[in-house]
């Protein structure tokens, strides 16, 4: 059965600098949880621990074992010589329907650059490709690290709506998704999240 994810007394230091100190909170199953904290508080370190890219010094994470993870990092981490379609297929799978990808690109105003190398795209366009890659990949837990940064106000709102629609559509189909949104933008957290936590 799906369950909540529990972060229990998590601590992490780098060269004697304490980044996380006995951090504890719960990410509720099937909900969008916004994690609010200022820059430098250790949010990205926490995400790296959840993704298995870092080990905590102490504490534990319960309920995440066996979950499929998808993520948007602060950096886009796209393959610059590949098109948006090819970048998305790297994680969605080589047999993922191209028409589904093209429809997603159209809904996020990227259809005109579907075949261009990503290195030729603007920063805002690349950011949207990175988000689509995460949303179209198979996942149970979606980790979003400042996913809308670099987008102008109108585009940001449109892409937030697209993200919410994608998550809600999956839930309506009986495939609820758990989302952790890391941000320092209060308005963004209030618009997107079912719950806002400030554990730092």
From TrEMBL:
GO MF term list: ATP binding; ATP hydrolysis activity
Classification via SUPFAM superfamilies: P-loop containing nucleoside triphosphate hydrolases
Key words, A-Z: ATP-binding, Nucleotide-binding, Transport
Highest taxon, organism lineage: Bacteria
Gene3D superfamilies in UniProt: P-loop containing nucleotide triphosphate hydrolases
Keyword field contains Manganese: no
Database matches in PROSITE patterns: ABC_TRANSPORTER_1, ABC_TRANSPORTER_2
UniProt name for this protein: Sulfate transporter
SMART domains found in the cross-reference section: AAA
Domain ABC transporter, first and last residues per copy: 5-200
């Amino acid at each position: 059965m799906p369950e909540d994810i529990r972060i229990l007394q998590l601590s992490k230091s780098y060269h004697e600098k304490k980044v996380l100190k006995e951090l504890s909170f719960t990410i509720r199953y099937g909900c969008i949880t916004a994690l609010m904290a200022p820059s430098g508080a250790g949010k990205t370190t926490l995400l790296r621990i959840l993704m298995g890219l870092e080990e905590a010094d102490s504490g534990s994470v319960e309920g995440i074992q066996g979950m499929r993870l998808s993520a948007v990092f602060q950096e886009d981490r796209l393959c610059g010589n590949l098109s948006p379609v090819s970048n998305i297929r790297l994680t969605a799978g080589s047999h993922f329907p191209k028409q589904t990808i093209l429809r997603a690109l159209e809904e996020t105003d990227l259809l005109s650059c579907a075949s261009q190398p990503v290195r030729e795209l603007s920063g805002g366009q690349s950011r949207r490709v990175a988000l689509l890659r995460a949303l179209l990949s198979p996942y149970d837990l979606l980790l979003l690290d400042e996913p809308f940064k670099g987008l102008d106000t109108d585009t940001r709102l449109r892409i937030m709506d697209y993200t919410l629609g994608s998550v809600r559509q999956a839930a309506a189909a009986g495939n609820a998704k758990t989302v952790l949104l890391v941000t320092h933008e209060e308005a963004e957290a209030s618009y997107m999240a079912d719950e806002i936590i400030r554990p730092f």
